[in-house]
Amino acid sequence: MLVIGERINGMFKDVAKAIQEQDKKVVQELARGQLAAGAGALDVNTGAAAADPRPAMQGLVETIREVTDAPLAIDTTKPAVMEAGLKAAGPGSIINSTTGQQARLAVLMPMAKAYDASVICLTIDEKGVPRDAAGRAEIALRIVSAAMENGVDMPDIYIDPVVLPANVAQPAVKEVPTSIRDIRLLSEPPPRTVVGLSNISQGTMYRRLINRTFLVMAVAAGLDAAILDPLDAEMMDAMITTELLMNKNVYCDDYLKAYRASSSG
Ligand code: THG
Known about the structure:
Elements (H helix, E strand, L loop, with lengths): L1 E4 L7 H8 L3 H13 L4 E4 L8 H13 L6 E4 L3 H11 L4 E5 L3 H13 L3 E5 L10 H17 L7 E4 L14 H9 L8 E5 L10 H14 L4 E4 L4 H13 L9 H9 L2
Parallel strand pairs: 1-2, 1-8, 2-3, 3-4, 4-5, 5-6, 6-7, 7-8
Helix pairs in contact: 1-2, 3-4, 6-7, 8-9
């Protein structure tokens, strides 16, 4: 499973401060640390920390590129910021994200082709996030069509069924694993699935426990990728164990060590 490290995000106080003070060290340490902990890609989001997000995104990406060639997920809703990030990061990046709205798909699918990027697509339309898995599947199908029309291959499409906080949208939680199963049936080969995991526990007391329990549910449903904090070792252990029990890796007694040895570059 592809782990996309979530920590280089201006939503976190240490990163917001680093962006404001142009402190490269903090960002570079987070890049190295997340990759060493098992991330295969890094999410990059300026948050609200920068007055002008375009140079801020470019600066963040260049700072990360000084220490790693790992794929970067450029996390912004603004096409101009996206393009600046993709340019600085180079081919093999991940667009994070487009919604299923035609106007956004019409901009971001061609951008994926032009910059040799894969693309995360949220199951959101003009009406917002659907209440149930059926509504998510409907938008996902529109996304699959748009990808085909633009010549973007299914393995380069990551559909995100949108995880909402369990404390305010409790009935929506179980729709996500259903949605992960549904999305895999939409085409052959299927698009991939991704979630922003930490959304599930925002504002709750047992954040890490809720994160890792939900991750197990999603991995058991066939999740392909997750934006999460790989520095949470208990969560990584839960993920690795679920993948083992789902027969994605061959059993050995020291499977945690074996997994880490094979994934740490
Ligand atoms: N889908 C996609 N991309 C995403 C998301 C998604 N990108 C952003 C987000 N959701 C995933 N990343 C985070 C990062 C941080 C938190 C949640 C999701 C988070 N932050 C603390 C908080 O809000 O409580 C910040 C405070 C702190 O700890 O310093 O929870 O769903 N495609």
